[in-house]
Structures are given as structure tokens and as C-alpha cells.
Amino acid sequence: MPHEEKNTRVLLDSRPPSFPSPANFRIVTDAVPKVGRDEVLLKTLWLSIEPYMILGMKGSAPHSAKTGSDRMANLANGYLGGVEVGTTMYGPTVSRVVQSNNRKFAVGDVVSSYSGWQEYAVDDCTTLRKLEMGTVPVTAALGVLGIPGMTAYAGMKLIARPSAGETVVVSAALGPVGSVVGQMARIAGARAVGIASGAEKCRYLENSLGFDAAVDRLSTNFAQQLAAACPRGIDVYFENAGGAVWWAAFPLLNEFARVPVCGLVAKYSGTHLDTGTDRTMEVLERLLLFRIKAQGLFVFDHADLEPQFLQEMLTWVSQGKIKYREDIVDGLSNAPQALVAVLTGKNVGKLLVRVAA
Ligand SMILES: NC(=O)c1ccc[n+]([C@@H]2O[C@H](COP(=O)([O-])OP(=O)(O)OC[C@H]3O[C@@H](n4cnc5c(N)ncnc54)[C@H](OP(=O)(O)O)[C@@H]3O)[C@@H](O)[C@H]2O)c1
Predict the structure, then answer these.
(1) Strands 120-123 and 40-48, how do they pair?
(2) What are the helix (H) ranges across 159-231?
(3) pLDDT beyond 90 at 284
(4) Proportion of the chain in helix, strand, coil states, percent, rounded to 5
(5) How many helices and strands (H and E) does the chain possess?
(6) Closest Cα partner for 87 from 9, 12, 7?
(7) If both were cysteines, with which of 15, 76, 80, 102 could 300 make a disulfide (CB 3.0 to 4.6 Å apart)?
(8) 215-252, pLDDT tens digit by residue?
(9) What is the 3-state secondary structure (H, E, C) of 329-349?
(10) CA distance readout (Å), 15 to 50, 59, 263, 349, 356
(11) For residues 168 and 236, is the Cβ–Cβ distance under 8 A?
């Protein structure tokens, strides 16, 4: 590591009152940190931008993961622990080992890491995973073969469990979670219906990812279009967003429908529809009368599923049965704007920041 090398970092400068803006961040350049015993120095290659980051900017999210492994427990703390003002923004990364005092990792290894929004990071190696992905590009470790892909996998295998002929609807369908949900539905022989914003994304879902139908959540008659795309109702509604998309899907839920509740982007971004009326009893009544199962999904509860997930998903991706799309932004200084984009649906696929070549 050349001594003159500097470390550029993006710090959280202030907590956003509601929606984040680039003004909530500050970029600093300082010395590359020193590596201690059993630690490695990582150079960030790729940074993942994810909707939950807004929660960390606002403080820590309440959580108690049933993690089952130290790696998952540390990852859960990383994801949900919150970011202190004045410290480096957190986030999953793919990095290269450039110095190593740890016998499990050699210089040159490419790893899945949690280095946050910075060029270099010292890591104690407790959450690192060496990437051995054959011909699949390493960026997939931040999407389809990373936490988002595993979230979809856990939700589909443990909660949704679709059968052939059933209808599976997923919101935020072109993201790394939603796109895996829809394609796993197709693998199971179910009808996959995606909800996304704009005609381009909907076309991509149908023409390139094999969804049976895709509905534009911004169209004026969105609820009618969703109903038309689900002529036999909805058996699985995989919730990534909440708000208006939930209210359109809810009346279509069939008897014994399953609803993995995975994320609420509409709430995180403050764009959820305030109906002005309390519809709690309406929801509870349908859950009761239709024997619907809605269950919160927390990927970190399912560490035991990780080996099976990695093996099966890598096979599917290698065979082209699961495809994915990436949306790449260049340079760490563009990360704040990228976070705004993911919260407003401006991303087309898994949003990544290329930090170094
Ligand atoms: N529970 C867990 O363990 C876990 C783990 C990982 C991720 N998650 C959650 O999974 C969900 C998907 O994550 P991802 O990384 O795949 O995100 P993503 O799809 O790449 O990005 C979020 C997407 O949400 C959609 N969106 C934004 N505002 C919306 C609104 N008001 N109504 C409906 N949709 C809206 C946008 O897509 P369109 O504009 O195309 O609709 C946007 O692209 C998120 O809620 C995330 O927090 C949960």
C-alpha cells in the first residue's frame, strides 16, 4: 500500500427530517487506516445502495435477529444498527484485500464485505466471505447472490411457497429482491405479476425476466390494471413497498393467500398514501375470513438457509434461469444521489456504485 494513498469517505453529516438529500452527507479525505492483528485492509470496488439506508440515517431500527451465526449477527447489526452523525455511512460492498494480517484472507482475494461508503476499510474478518462465483460477475454478490437475493429466497421458500398455477404478485419488481421473487415464482410454475414504475421497467420484466405481466404503479388506473393482470386473484403478495400498491393488491387476495412483508419503501420515502381513514378492521377482517397469512420477513433470521441459497441460486444464475439487471453509478461522490434514486424508483435494477475499477 503506497503511503501517499488517501481514503475518501462519505460521512452522515445530519439526520434527514424525512426524505434524505445529498446535503445530509459530507465527503472527507484522510489517511488510510492502519491494519491491526488478524485484520485486513480492504479496497472497495463496489458499493450497494439499498432502501433501508434511510432508516440508518434516521437512527437505529429496533431489531432482535434470531441470527444463528456470528456472521449474520454482525451483518444484522451492520444493516440495522444505525449510523452516528459524523461517521462513515454504512453499506454492503465488494472489496479486494490489499493488506492481510489474517491467515484466512490473502492479498488479492475479492470478498463480500460491509465497508460502507469509503475507499478503504480495515476489517476484523468476522463478516467477510471470499467470493468464488465461477463465471458469475462479483457484483452479483451484492444483489441476486447477496442479501437481497437471499431475502427473496427465504421469503419464497419459507412463507410464500407458491404452487403451480397460483398467482404471485411482487412490488418493486425490478429490484434485486423483487426480480428474484418473480423468477422463482415462474420456476415454481406460478403466474408472476410485477409492479414497477414506468413502461420501460414493465417491458423489461415481461420481455427479459419472463414475468407473465407487469403493471405500472404510476398509471392512473393502476388498481384496475392490477386486477386485470390477476384474473384468478392473488395467492402470494410479496410486499416490498406498502402504500398505494398494498391497497391495490389487498382486495385481490384469495383465500389462504400468503403475504411475506419484506419492506415498506413507500413508508421509508414518505410517499405512502395517507387514506385519512383507519382501515385496520377491514384488513383484519379479510385476514380472518380469507385465512390469509401475513408474516414479517427478516433475512438475518435465516442464516441456516445461506449455504442452500448460495448453491441453488448460483446454479440458477449460471444456467440463465434467474437473470438480473444492474444500474451502475460511477464514483463514491455520487452515492448520496443514488440513495435518493433508489427511494424514488429512478433505479432500473440493482443499484451499485463503482468505487474503483
Ligand atoms: N426484510 C429483510 O430482511 C429485507 C432485506 C433486504 C431488503 N429488504 C427490502 O426489500 C425491498 C426491496 O429492496 P431492493 O433492494 O430490491 O430495492 P429496489 O427494488 O432496488 O429499490 C426500491 C424500489 O422500490 C420502489 N418504490 C419506491 N417508492 C415506492 C412507492 N412509493 N411505492 C411502491 N414502490 C416504490 C421503486 O421501484 P418502482 O419505482 O419500479 O416501483 C424502487 O426502485 C425494500 O423494501 C427493502 O427494504 C428487506
Answers:
(1) antiparallel
(2) 176-187, 199-207, 222-229
(3) yes
(4) 35, 25, 40
(5) 11, 15
(6) 12
(7) 76
(8) 999 999 999 999 999 999 999 999 999 999 999 999 99
(9) EECHHHHHHHHHHHHHCCCCC
(10) 17, 8, 21, 27, 28
(11) yes
In the reported structure, the alpha carbon of residue 264 is separated from the centroid of ligand 1 by a whole-number distance in angstroms of: 7
Displacement of CA 101 from its chain's centroid (Å) = 32
- Residue 172: closest CA among 90, 263, 86: 263
Amino acid in the structure at residue 195: I
* Residue that has been written with the C-alpha cell 456470528 in this structure: 70
> Do the beta carbons of residue 215 and residue 229 sit within 8 Å?
yes
CA distances from 184 to 20, 200, 236, 272 (A): 33, 22, 12, 28
pLDDT at residue 62 in the model: 60
- Indicate which atom in ligand 1 lies nearest the CA of residue 263: 45
Q: Where are the beta strands (DSSP E) in 101-230?
A: 110-113, 120-123, 129-130, 167-170, 191-196, 213-216
For residue 278, what are the contacts with CB-CB under 8 A and spacing of at least 6?
none
- Cα–ligand 1 centroid distance for 339 (angstroms): 12
User: What is the pLDDT at residue 178?
Assistant: 98
Q: Which residue has the cell 437481497?
A: 148
pLDDT, average across residues 109-125: 96
Name residues contacting ligand 1 (CB within 6 A): 50-52, 147-148, 151, 171-172, 174-178, 196-197, 201, 217, 240-241, 243, 245, 262-263, 265-266, 269, 271, 297-299, 342, 345, 347, 351
**Amino acid sitting at position 321:** K
User: In this predicted model, what pLDDT tens digit does every residue of 257-282 receive, in sequence order?
Assistant: 999 999 999 988 877 666 678 899 99
Q: Are 349 and 48 in contact (CB under 8 A)?
A: no
How far apart CA 82 and CA 113 sit, in angstroms, is 17
- Dihedral over Cα of 12, 14, 19, 20: its sign: negative
